[in-house]
Amino acid sequence: MKILNEFRCSFPACSANEALARAAVSAFLIPADPTAQELADLRTVISEAVTNAIVHGYRGTEGEVSICLRMLPERVIYIRVSDKGCGIPDVAKAMEPLYTSAPEEERAGLGFAIMQTFTDSLHVRSIPGHGTVLTMRRRLGKNDAES
Amino acid sequence: MQIHYDTETARLHVQLSGEIDHHSSNALRAQIDAAIYAHLPQTLELDFGSVTFMDSSGIGLIMGRYKILQPLGGEIVLTATSPHIRRVLRLAGMERLASITTEAEVTS
């Protein structure tokens, strides 16, 4: 599929960079003229994905989080977030609502539920010991009845 | 963040502000918990009027405070919630734990 625009960056896995990732999404999306809800949804999605990489992928160890944002035809936004952290041994389990591997951090276990609800598709590829890649797509301008 | 305790109504009003994410929630949690343990309030009001962003870290923050207040018989009210924040709250089923309003409640 033709890529109309693309933004890629990598940053250290520290929590201050969660805001940086949201700012990148905002800046990338503005030319596509998203609604307030679309913008808020995708900012939330990247925040969840990057937080997962930092909290669960690297678990306080050093590492790098990479994001790739693409504008595809028909106003489809593609978001990829990847890390080279510990990986997810059981992806199906990790995606269950309210499941968290870090209850001591008061994680609600809703990251994947939010990513699934606020996008049209979510794919998770993970190899334990090597890392995780999340790819998501959301088409802007769909009639979104559930607000 | 501003915290005000009203002794007459035993209501702890927490005016949250800015972005609530994994990064900011640790500091928020520590300050709110210090006020909860200092006053043992009947009602904890989390006022979202100045909050510009919240992800599931905010849900963790609310659920954690709910667990602290439960043994005290206290309740949580979430006020001045924007459409985005209500969307995240609803997805998490927070209406089962707390009352949610769009407006700031008048506190004395």
Number of domains of chain B: 1
Taking the alpha carbons of the first and last residues of chain A, their distance comes to: 30 Å
User: Remind me, CATH topology of chain A?
Assistant: Heat Shock Protein 90
CATH architecture of chain B: 2-Layer Sandwich
Which two chains form the greatest contact, residue counts included? A-B, 26 and 22 residues
Q: What is the overall pLDDT average of chain B?
A: 93
Instruction: Please trace the helix and strand order of chain A, writing H or E for each element.
Output: EHHEEHHEE
The backbone outline of chain B, from C-alpha atoms, is: globular
Q: How much helical structure, as a percent, in the residues of chain A?
A: 25-40%
pLDDT averaged residue by residue of chain A: 92
Using only C-alpha atoms, the radius of gyration of chain A works out to: 15 Å
User: What does the overall shape of chain A look like?
Assistant: globular
Order of the strands making up the biggest sheet of chain B: 1-2-3-4-5
Largest sheet of chain A: 5 strands, antiparallel
Task: Label the CATH architecture of chain A.
Answer: 2-Layer Sandwich
Q: Unreliable stretches of chain A, pLDDT < 50, 5 or more residues?
A: none
